[in-house]
Structures are given as structure tokens and as C-alpha cells.
Amino acid sequence: MIQKVESLVVAEAVVNLVQNSPEAAEVDCYIESYQNGREQGLMLWSSCAFKQRAQAIYIAQCRNSDQILICVGNYSMQSISEDAYSHKNLYKHNDYAGAAEFVLETAKRLFPIAK
């Protein structure tokens, strides 16, 4: 049997909700994978942010529990920055909608479509 790591499954579920929201049209960013030990997840970031210090939103399952972990902070290529890890937001293991709402609102603020 071929299986995905649970942390990545959780991240995909949240990101799918974000991408399927009509409000996602207000966001300009990329989705990349990242790994931090047992946490494997997805991050949202924008190349437009390189004019300043790039920011990212990291999404995974918390390695110490089954909660949904959302971290927001400095971008780090294929990993998670210490800054982001120190800005954790935890959601109950089944609160995909709440986590997606937080990610979307944060993404709209950090990565708005240029007008």
C-alpha cells in the first residue's frame, strides 16, 4: 500500500479549502512543500514579497498532537524558519474550515493581488 504522511494529508485538506474559496482570487502566491522533521506540509509564499523580507504561511499537522498547525513568518526554502515556528496557530484536528479561514485571511493580507 502506498500512503501519504498524515501531516501532508492535513495540509492538503486545508490548502484545498483555501484554493476553492472565491476569495482565493484576491491572493497572489505559490504553494510549495516543506519538511521540519516529522512535520511535512505545505507553505504559501509570494515572490513579490522579495522586495522586503519574504513571508510565508506554513500548514501541517502538529508533530506532537493531531492538531492542525499554521505558522506565519519569514520564508525559508523547503523548511520552516524559526520566526514562523515561534508564531504558531493551532486548530482542533477536525477544524479544517477554521484553519482554512485563517490561512485565507492571512494570505489576503500578506499576498494581495497587485492592482
How would you explain this protein's 3D organization?
With about 120 residues, the chain is an alpha+beta fold. The protein has one domain (about 5-110). Helix content is about 30%, strand content about 30%. It has a five-stranded antiparallel beta sheet with strand order 1-2-3-4-5. Helix 1 (about 5-20) crosses helix 3. The radius of gyration is 13 Å and the shape is globular. It starts with 5 loop residues before the first helix and ends in a 5-residue tail after the last helix. The mean pLDDT is about 90.
Mean pLDDT: 92
- Overall 3D geometry? globular
The structure class reads: alpha+beta
Strand order, largest beta sheet: 1-2-3-4-5
Main sheet overview:
5 strands, antiparallel
Using only C-alpha atoms, the radius of gyration works out to: 13 Å
Q: Write the H/E string, N to C.
A: HEEEEHEH
Number of strands: 5
Low-confidence stretches: none
Short description:
The chain is 29% helix and 28% strand. It has 115 residues and is of the alpha+beta class.
List keywords for this structure.
single chain; 115 residues; alpha+beta; 5-stranded antiparallel beta sheet; 28% strand
Helix and strand topology:
Elements: H1 6-19, E1 30-36, E2 39-45, E3 55-61, E4 68-74, H2 82-85, E5 88-91, H3 96-110
Antiparallel strand pairs: 1-2, 2-3, 3-4, 4-5
